Amino acid sequence: MIKNENSDKEAKALAQHPTCMSVFKARRVIDQIRGRSYEETLRILELMPYWASYPILRLVYSAAANASHNMGLNEADLFISKAEVNRGAIVKKLRPRARGRSYLIKKTTCHIKIFLKEKSKI
Hints:
Belongs to the universal ribosomal protein uL22 family. The protein is α+β, with helices and mostly antiparallel strands and 122 residues long. It has one domain (14-118): CATH 3.90.470.10. The protein has helices at residues 23-33, 38-47, 53-70, and strands spanning 10-15, 78-96, 102-118. A hairpin with a 5-residue loop joins strand 2 and strand 3 (102-118). It is elongated. The two termini are 14 Å apart.
């Protein structure tokens, strides 16, 4: 059996460092785009009313740029093969309150991974 050279190639983009959004809010957006084509994903993310869709849109652009520049794949043939959202570190801040006390503010972060593959031409 002869395999196509580009069939197992997968481009990815990671957003790890301070992506200050809840895992649940990011997963709500990621679940809508998983398994869709690249162009359809861009249309969906541009029209979504959620704040979390903008960083994910930038990440999809980055993954497509990685695919076209590093691997020579055509952007029109790409689709989202895998999309993951995992919990990151919790940033803790102290806010001053009355009578010299402090209140702990917990900012949740998440790690987002998007993998793009080329559609097989059969």
